[in-house]
Specification:
about 65% helix; mainly alpha
Length: about 150
């Protein structure tokens, strides 16, 4: 018994190609994100001020916003399409229509919310003044637990 893995055409073929291409692009976007956020920068330095300064930088802010919007959009579509493909194996025609409607509706909602928050972001200077960008310190410069005020622990 031979199984045909690749769809023969139409909508399913488009989504089959999309999964392969988006998966490849997501590898680069996600690995790049992990490298930048967890290797180049210490996790302890990443806060609102860090993200705000990155997204609102005059020359490079649009690149970071585009990167994050692409990452969130592709990840959501890729994940929901994978869920759709799995559910379609177990559902009949009516169940597929309902599942497809719910999945693509949630997908649009999540991409809309994520895209809106990334693309319409405005820096809150007052919040940054209260919570400035953290600066890395060596362990020799770190205060002991008794020297840290209770509000910062």
């Amino acid at each position: 018994m031979s199984r045909r893995i690749r769809p023969s055409g139409g909508y399913e073929l488009f989504l089959w190609y999309f999964m392969r291409i988006s998966g490849l692009v997501l590898v680069f976007l996600a690995v790049g994100h992990l490298f930048i956020m967890h290797i180049l920068n210490n996790v302890e330095t990443i806060n609102y001020a860090f993200v705000a300064s990155r997204w609102t930088a005059p020359r490079t802010g649009w690149i970071w916003r585009l990167w994050d919007a692409a990452l969130i959009s592709l990840a959501v579509i890729h994940g929901f399409n994978g869920l759709r493909q799995i559910l379609y194996e177990y559902l009949g025609a009516r169940g597929r229509v309902l599942a497809g409607t719910v999945i693509w509706g949630l997908c649009a909602l999540f991409i809309g919310a994520g895209g809106y928050s990334i693309l319409m972001f405005e820096k809150d200077e007052e919040h940054i003044r209260k919570h400035p960008l953290k600066v890395e310190r060596t362990t020799d410069e770190m205060p002991g637990p008794a020297a840290i005020p209770p509000a910062e622990r």
